[in-house]
């Protein structure tokens, strides 16, 4: 089976055939194996890359040149991927390659938002349990690395006044957490850090 898909892929590369049959990837049982075979052939035989080189070097222009957009449409991109990202095609071809941790992926997305390389977080990024975990990673990074607080008990004083809290969240691109996940800045902080729910910590002199 894999050899026949490669024969058809070779015809596509040579121009004898424009695309795969619409029925080529219908059978879910073999779909992944077929796609992996095409990707690996393209990376290893056509480009002469190792898996590590493929991960480091694959670009959108390579995808077009290798006609891999014809199989890309059958690969579900990770939630972090932007429209023109192709790195996950290499991960799909080589599932054994080391991958970034969830925290590393979240911080990559957040740093891109902060830098303006993304206009906003991916849709539904902060929904459900996974979304709450992502929210905490971003918020932790904000107060530790961006604001530079050294003690978690300093957070309530910064967030005690609602207007100030919203201004901070807007500045660091995290107002979406209150818009989609929490009822208020107070709710955000105390849900993430239950130990900060003590009213004494929120007292404004």
Automatic annotation (TrEMBL):
Protein known as: DUF4046 domain-containing protein
DUF4046 domain: residues covered: 106-196
Matches recorded under InterPro entries: DUF4046
Pfam families on file: DUF4046
């Amino acid at each position: 089976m894999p050899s026949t898909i490669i024969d058809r892929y070779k015809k596509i590369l040579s121009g004898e055939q424009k695309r795969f049959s619409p029925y080529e990837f219908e059978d879910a049982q073999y779909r992944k194996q077929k796609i992996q075979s095409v990707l690996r052939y393209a990376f290893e035989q056509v480009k002469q890359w190792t898996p590590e080189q493929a991960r480091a070097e694959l670009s959108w222009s390579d995808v077009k040149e290798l006609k891999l957009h014809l199989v890309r449409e059958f690969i579900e991109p990770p939630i972090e991927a932007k429209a023109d990202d192709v790195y996950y095609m290499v991960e799909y071809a080589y599932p054994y390659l080391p991958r970034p941790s969830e925290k590393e992926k979240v911080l990559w997305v957040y740093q891109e938002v902060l830098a303006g390389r993304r206009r906003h977080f991916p849709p539904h990024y902060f929904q459900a349990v996974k979304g709450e975990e992502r929210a905490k990673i971003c918020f932790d990074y904000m107060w530790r690395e961006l604001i530079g607080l050294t003690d978690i008990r300093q957070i309530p004083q910064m967030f005690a006044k609602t207007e100030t809290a919203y201004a901070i969240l807007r500045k660091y691109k995290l107002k979406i957490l209150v818009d989609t996940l929490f009822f208020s800045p107070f709710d955000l902080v105390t849900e993430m850090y239950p130990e900060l729910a003590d009213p004494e910590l929120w007292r404004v002199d």
